[in-house]
Design brief:
The complex is a heterodimer of chains A (about 110) and B (about 450).
Chain A: E1 10-11, H1 12-15, E2 16-23, E3 28-35, H2 38-46, H3 52-59, E4 67-71, E5 76-82, E6 108-109
Chain B: E1 3-9, H1 16-22, E2 29-33, H2 42-45, H3 53-70, E3 74-77, H4 85-101, E4 107-113, H5 118-126, E5 130-132, H6 142-147, E6 150-154, H7 158-165, E7 170-173, H8 178-188, H9 193-203, E8 218-222, E9 226-231, H10 240-246, E10 256-259, E11 262-265, E12 270-273, E13 279-282, E14 285-288, E15 293-312, H11 315-319, H12 321-340, E16 348-354, E17 375-383, H13 386-402, E18 423-432, E19 436-439, E20 448-454
Parallel strand pairs in B: 1-2, 2-3, 3-7, 4-7
Antiparallel strand pairs in B: 1-8, 4-20, 5-19, 6-15, 8-9, 9-13, 10-11, 11-14, 12-13, 15-17, 15-18, 15-19, 16-17
Helix pairs in contact in B: 3-4, 7-8, 8-9, 12-13
Classes of the chains: A alpha+beta (about 110), B alpha+beta (about 450).
Chain lengths: ~110, ~450
């Protein structure tokens, strides 16, 4: 099941079985990355692809406001960060935050 | 000793075979969540709902009939969707009508209202008992309270427990934490806080924790060490993965769930298959809060909104889209300034471009690209009056549909648009304006419970 047998660099979307995002309340965004097993999850953690600093750089937010959480029971990683603007405020384009995982999909994860 | 209950979401419903299966169970109560803040600020401000009256009435009829037949409480939180007192009254009205039509009376109903008294809230602010939550940081002062369209508190388990002790057979509560709905009766019956709260947190989405995830009646059996969950529909099942994975859904931190009275810690939780369709969960801990806090949800007017749309598949224009749009925007801004003078700054015009790679880009990370097939523009003007919003949107739309690309000679270009009239007024829009909690001396303090006997 694990995709780690592939020694080449893979994109997050190739390694994950699902990447999704949603609001956690109107002011926070939360991104879930599910993997088929602990090896793939560990590979992403060990590659330091998802860190408060990398997320802060990608989404242009303060690293101190970013949380990365490993949920072993679900072979999942969670990334939580403040929304750029409150859900439904003037200029918002994604009221429920459903498409904000897209910037992470193609991140390269070295073997 | 165990305690058993069912969970569903009002409006999303549950299948017939689940309802039939429920009748043979020995239940302590039926619980349901009926609201969410995730659909946006309008539902709290106005009279809109997530689900239609037909859907809510259908679910209420089936759940109320089942609960009265079994003589168990029906406990519903976030009635009407958002925490408006009106939403509680709306549900109470439907319950009375259903009781009369289906001859279910007599029974006692408690209505718990969650809208917050403004003077009370200003007192909390003056006393320094208002605290910000994590996420986007917003200032919140007495001025914000005054200009809010509506403010609601999010109740914990205590108002539910009080209503049930007050003799309620049916509890219709305003805004509540999803888990408060399901933790109240287990807590009142002496089950450990860790189990009662974690079971409630897992239960709150009903059948959504199953595989396949679908609206259903979720069966929860609580004991003193843990709990077991299973969907009632035979076509779905709970697996350790489906339940564990769902804990991440719309929660910023699935290891620490913060409730008004404390925090559920799931770091040592184990999910194990109890049988082919059920999962047993144990190992959570609960740390009582040092101070009891109630989260606030509130909205204020953001201005009147008008929208318009247009699309292009002219490849000459699409190939120079980023530059073309920049020039078009400059022309629009100059016209708005000319027409509206000093008040032009009171209007906000947003031009969203779809097809060029950044239509859903909340963080503004991607530059406008060259669309491969076509481009769709959604214009949105927000202004202090509807007339001004409509004026700005019309001006912007008319400029955008005729603005020529440099690759064509002449100026008769016209975009495609799908509707007439092309500019649509969307009325007053609202924004969320509070991301804070207040400290309370008594968990019931911000809320009001009214009782009635449905005859």
């Amino acid at each position: 099941m694990s995709k780690t047998t592939n020694a080449a660099t893979l994109r997050l979307r190739d390694l994950a079985v699902c990447i999704r995002s949603k609001n956690a309340g109107p002011f926070m965004l939360t991104i879930d990355l599910f993997f088929s097993g602990p090896e793939d999850c560990r590979r992403v953690i060990d590659a330091h692809v998802l860190t408060p600093e990398s997320i802060a750089a990608i989404y242009r937010v303060d690293a101190a406001t970013v949380k990365i959480i490993y949920v072993a029971q679900a072979n999942a990683l969670k990334v939580s960060l403040p929304r750029a603007r409150a859900a439904g405020d003037v200029g918002d384009c994604d009221v429920a935050g459903g498409q904000q995982f897209a910037p992470l999909m193609d991140l390269a994860v070295p073997a | 000793m165990t305690l058993e209950y069912l969970s569903f979401f009002v409006g999303a419903g549950f299948p017939d075979d689940s309802l039939a299966a429920a009748k043979s169970l020995d239940l302590a109560f039926i619980g349901a969540d009926a609201g969410t803040i995730d659909v946006g600020p309008y539902q709290l401000a106005g009279s809109g709902t997530i689900f239609s009256e037909a859907l809510c009435r259908h679910d209420l009829r089936r759940a109320l009939t089942a609960a009265r037949d079994m003589r168990v409480p029906l406990v519903i939180g976030s009635c009407g969707g958002s925490g408006r007192n009106e939403g509680v009254d709306w549900f109470a009205g439907m319950v009375r009508e259903i009781a009369r039509e289906s001859r279910l009376a007599p029974f006692r109903v408690a209505r718990i209202y969650s809208e917050i008294d403004r003077n009370y809230l200003c007192g909390k602010i003056r006393d320094g008992l208002l605290h910000p939550l994590s996420g986007l940081q917003l200032p919140y002062t007495e001025e914000h309270v005054a200009r809010s369209s509506r403010i609601t508190g999010v109740m914990g388990a205590e108002p539910f427990i009080a209503a049930l002790k007050g003799g309620a057979d049916v509890v219709l509560a305003g805004r509540a934490t999803d888990s408060a709905i399901f933790s109240a009766i287990p807590l009142a019956n002496g089950y450990p806080e860790s189990v009662a709260w974690h079971a409630a947190k897992v239960a709150e989405c009903g059948g959504a924790i199953g595989e396949p995830a679908r609206p259903d009646l979720l069966r929860v059996i609580v004991d003193h060490e843990g709990f077991v969950v299973s969907p009632l529909a035979a076509s779905s099942r709970c697996t350790p993965w489906s339940v564990a994975a769902h804990q991440l859904y719309e929660n910023a931190d699935p290891i620490h769930f913060v409730e008004p009275s404390g925090t559920i810690d799931t770091s040592k939780v184990a999910f194990t298959a109890a049988d082919a369709r059920s999962v047993r969960i144990s190992g959570a801990s609960f740390t009582p809060a040092r101070v009891y806090t109630v989260k606030l949800e509130g909205v204020e007017p953001a201005g009147y909104q008008s929208i318009a749309m247009a699309s292009y598949n002219d490849r000459v224009l699409l190939e120079e889209l980023p530059v073309w749009l920049k020039r078009t925007r400059a022309e629009i801004d100059a016209k708005v300034a000319r027409v509206f003078g000093a008040s032009a700054k009171d209007a906000t015009l947003t031009i969203r471009t779809y097809g060029a790679g950044n239509g859903s880009d909340l963080f503004g990370l991607e530059p406008l690209g060259i669309p491969k097939a076509d481009a769709f523009f959604l214009l949105d003007a927000v202004a202090p009056t509807q007339a001004m919003a409509s004026g700005v949107a019309t001006l912007a739309w008319h400029t955008l549909i005729h603005f020529p690309p440099s690759g064509w000679r002449g100026g008769v270009l016209t975009a495609a648009w799908p509707f007439n009239p092309p500019v649509m007024d969307r009325g007053l829009m609202h924004r969320f304006n509070v991301n804070h909690v207040i400290e309370v001396d008594d968990p019931l303090e911000p809320f009001r419970i009214d009782y009635e006997t449905v005859e």
